[in-house]
Amino acid sequence: MDDRALSKEISYALRHAPWEYELEMDSEGAVAVEQLLDALHQSAKWKNVSEDDLKRIIAHSEKKRFELKEGKIRAYYGHSIPMKIRKEKQMPPDILYHGTARRFLAPIMESGLLPQNRQYVHLSQDVETAVNVGKRHDAKPCILIIDAKAAWADGIIFYLGNEKVWLADVVPAKYIQEGKGTYENLR
Fold this sequence. Notes:
Layout: H1 3-16, E1 31-32, H2 33-40, H3 51-60, E2 66-69, E3 72-75, E4 95-100, H4 105-111, E5 121-124, H5 127-134, E6 142-147, H6 148-153, E7 158-160, E8 165-168, E9 176-178
Antiparallel strand pairs: 1-3, 2-3, 4-6, 5-8, 6-9, 7-8
C-alpha cells in the first residue's frame, strides 16, 4: 500500500472535501473512523484500508497531520472547508516563524499574515519547519519572525495545531519581522 498516497487522500477528505466522501464532521473536524473507512472502501484503490493502516500512517508521519482518538480521526490543521473548525486558544511560545515565497513579502509586511484559502494562518515553532514550508513556494524562501509574545499580550489569539504548527486567525504586520542572514542565525 502506498502510505503517502493514502495520507494525501485522507488529507483531502478531512481538510478540503468531506462532502465528497459523505463524511459527517463534528465541530472539531473529527469523523468516525468507520465512516472514513467506509468512504475509502468505495474506491478499488483503497478497498483494503484498515484502521491499522491509519494508525501506521499517523505513527510514521513527520508532519503529524492527523489525530486518531476515541474512534474518531481528524486533521489537526490545513482545513479549507467552509465550516470553521473549532480550536482552543493557547498561549504560544515567545517567537514563531513563517516561511513564505519572496514574492509575498511586500504584501505580508503591509497587510500582515492572512489565512488566504485556509481557515487559519499557519506558523512554525522552529526555523527548520518554516524553511520546509517556504520551500514549497520558493527555493530561497523568506523566513518571517513573529513576535507571538507581544501579539498574545495585545489580544491576538493563537491555537496549537500540533507540536510544530501553531495557528492564528490573523497576524498583523506590526508583529512580523523579516529574518535576516542565514537560517542558522534565526535560531
